């Protein structure tokens, strides 16, 4: 009798194909996963950098007209007060505040910069504006002497596998210091 050749795959051939498919899919998944992590890091760094730039521009503008500065301590400051001059040359006060959001479980705070207009008629001060600059504030550190100050603001954001910290340092001299 004639032997007819059966068409089909042997078990060994099927196992080899499955192993090669799994190896290739594993490499492709790893490439996509690595790419996703890199894109997440870049997105967070970009966000922190743009927030840092707006904070740095605002504090540099305030610092150029600064008269004096008061803070509650040097590390992990919650309130920083800068006595300065506004655009019209009148005295004003800027408060840089670190506020924890209600119901927030993360370790970052919000950074608010408030401008107060000096009220000559009363002893109080009038709030001119209050703006949230970032929700990613980790710490504010200050070192100052009689004529200048250095403010370090540390921004931090944690998302997925990424935990990025971005420090900002602003140095300014009290040009309008009263003797």
From TrEMBL:
Superkingdom of source: Bacteria
A Pfam short name: N_methyl
The entry's keywords: Membrane, Transmembrane, Transmembrane helix
Transmembrane segment boundaries: 12-32
UniProt xrefs under PROSITE patterns: PROKAR_NTER_METHYL (PS00409)
Record's protein name: Prepilin-type N-cleavage/methylation domain protein
Species this protein is from: Clostridium botulinum (strain Eklund 17B / Type B)
